[in-house]
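User: Please fill in residues for this 125-position structure.
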């Protein structure tokens, strides 16, 4: 017999994540995880819930494990600074980047990185 998942509302999930991480995790942050397929949405007709175990697994992947896993897959020459892993979701979706889901968008920090690193004197003047 399999154990039933511990289901949390989006608000309960944000409260749990805030306590777990020791920083503010909003309901918008949890909705973002659902919207972009990081965790599954459970429920219909306004009763959205998430599985606590999925949430735990998602946040455990951020305790340095992601860099190790990606370097195992892609090689040690991976420039982890370009992952922008240190930024909060709210910082990577600043301006109008949360108006609608668009998986091909660039986070502003990536664009800034390349523009700042490749600006010549003509572009500055």
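Assistant: Residues filled in for all 125 positions:
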């Amino acid at each position: 017999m399999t154990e039933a998942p511990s289901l949390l509302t989006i608000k309960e999930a944000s409260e749990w994540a805030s306590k777990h991480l020791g920083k503010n995790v909003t309901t918008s942050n949890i909705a973002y995880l659902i919207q972009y397929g990081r965790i599954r949405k459970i429920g219909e007709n306004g009763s959205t819930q998430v599985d606590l175990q999925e949430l735990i697994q998602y946040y455990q992947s951020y305790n340095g494990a992601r860099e190790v896993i990606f370097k195992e897959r892609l090689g040690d020459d991976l420039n982890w600074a370009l992952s922008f892993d240190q930024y909060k979701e709210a910082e990577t979706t600043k301006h109008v980047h949360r108006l609608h889901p668009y998986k091909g968008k660039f986070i502003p920090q990536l664009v800034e990185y390349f523009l700042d690193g490749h600006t010549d004197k003509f572009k500055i003047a």
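For context: The chain has a mean pLDDT of 78.
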